[in-house]
Amino acid sequence: MKNHIIFDLDWTIADTQKIHQQIESDFLRGKGLFIDPKEIWVRFAWRTPQEWISEVLLLNKINFHRDELELFVSKKDEIVISMLNEWKIELMPYAFEILELLHQNDYKIGISSGACREFINQFIVYFNLKEIVVASTSSNEVEKKKPNPDVFLTSFKKIENLFWIPDNKFVIWDWWSDVEWWHKSWAKTIWLNYSKKDKINESYCDFEIESLKDLKDILWFNN
What we know:
Blueprint: E1 3-8, H1 17-29, H2 37-44, H3 49-59, H4 66-83, H5 95-104, E2 108-113, H6 117-126, E3 133-138, H7 139-142, H8 150-162, E4 168-173, H9 179-182, E5 188-192, E6 207-209, H10 215-218
Parallel strand pairs: 1-2, 1-4, 2-3, 4-5, 5-6
Helix pairs in contact: 1-2, 1-4, 3-4
């Protein structure tokens, strides 16, 4: 049986999102406003930095130049990349074990992420995943940010071009608010529910797990 599986990156296979949170928090601190980095993900996930930072600054009556904000956002990817080696980024629990097991069982594995292409490439090298991850897509490539299904569909298409049309396609992500988009990628959807939250619509989610190790219970393995 031929299987393809696409993973989200931040908080699904690694805690890379904390780099973005810290950089954005540091920018606001430079404006005299402190927002805990952990709070940024909870409050502003899936909004662009331009949108939510400008809104927060205006609400707090802090003067800023939009050109300055645009420059910060344009340079943010460079900062994130430079911090990959300095920051103590870790794979999520059981991530490497599961990726290796999927690879051993001939699952073709991809990554789809809102991160820039260079960061994804460096991430794959940094964690020695070059032999495991066969395709990846940055949302910048399709000019649509996640959770638009094109970000996943592009990774699936890349894998199909390299190998074959699969019998099964899976998408795995950790954020419920985006599950309604997952099923539009015509793949079986796996919700990595770290926070043990309630589903909003049962029909949008094929599988729910609380840890990556639970993939052993729902996917097909020969060993």
